[in-house]
Write a structure and sequence with these properties.
The structure holds two protein chains of two kinds.
Chain A: E1 9-13, E2 18-23, E3 31-38, E4 45-50, E5 55-56, E6 61-64, E7 70-75, E8 84-92, E9 106-111
Parallel strand pairs in A: 1-9
Antiparallel strand pairs in A: 2-7, 3-4, 3-8, 5-6, 6-7, 8-9
Chain B: E1 4-7, E2 10-13, E3 19-25, E4 31-38, E5 42-51, E6 54-57, E7 65-66, E8 76-78, E9 87-94, E10 105-106, E11 110-114
Parallel strand pairs in B: 2-11
Antiparallel strand pairs in B: 1-3, 3-8, 4-5, 4-9, 5-6, 7-8, 9-10, 9-11
The chains are: A mainly beta, B mainly beta.
Chain lengths: 112, 115
């Protein structure tokens, strides 16, 4: 199973953009990149996902490197409510495995 | 409202006393899964189910059992709980239908303490 590597923690000031990196050097051609976040005392929630092209939704943007060995979740204007643990995971649609490996994620602290 | 529910939310039990944590989803999702979350270890998948009567092991299945007799329910069974199963447990479900984006919906969590 392909693994991801993320920094343990990051800090950002409120109202500023945040770039959360994820390395996945062993990614296969059929792995989708998913991002989830977990707010304090809650279950994880879906943020965004992509395969090759950059993606945008109402919550965030996902920038995927051309070689797909890394990706970056972009929060355009961090708010205090964005303080959470962010998980980058890979999901293989072709192999038939539906295992999800979350890892320990990046704890984002947003400073007022 | 689309949701995944878990019961109980909190449970304190003793070693060896069988327990079941229930999970139910109202979205008609095919895929359901159980995770445990421990400090410093993140979320680890215990078991998952692709559909009724189809289950498979995740990364940490030892000491757990599951069943999927109905599409909406996916109970987690601890036949003989031990203190190392003290953890926060999450159930999740995903739609595998055509056009689905495979977004996982998580329940609110069950905090289990085994003494």
């Amino acid at each position: 199973d392909a693994k991801t590597t993320q920094p343990n923690s990051m800090e950002s000031n409120e109202e500023e953009p945040v770039h959360l990196p994820c390395n996945h050097s062993t990614i296969s051609g059929t792995d989708y990149i998913h991002w989830y976040r977990q707010l304090p005392s809650q279950g994880p929630e879906y943020v965004i996902h992509g395969l090759t092209s950059n993606v945008n939704n109402r919550m965030a943007s996902l920038a995927i490197a051309e070689d797909r060995k890394s990706s970056t979740l972009i929060l355009h204007r961090a708010t205090l409510r964005d303080a959470a643990v962010y998980y980058c995971i890979l999901r293989d649609l072709v192999s038939g495995t539906y295992k999800y490996i979350f890892g320990t994620g990046t704890r984002l602290k947003v400073l007022a | 409202e689309a949701q995944v529910t878990q019961n109980p939310r909190y449970l304190i039990t003793v070693t060896g006393k069988k327990l079941t944590v229930t999970c139910s989803q109202n979205m008609n999702h095919e895929y359901m899964s159980w995770y445990r979350q421990d400090p410093g270890l993140g979320l680890r998948q215990i078991y998952y189910s692709m559909n009724v009567e189809v289950t498979d092991k995740g990364d940490v299945p030892e000491g757990y059992k599951v069943s999927r007799k109905e599409k909406r329910n996916f109970p987690l069974i601890l036949e003989s709980p031990s203190p190392n199963q003290t953890s926060l447990y999450f159930c999740a479900s995903i739609s595998l239908g055509t056009g689905a984006i495979y977004e996982q919906y998580f329940g609110p969590g069950t905090r289990l303490t085994v003494t």
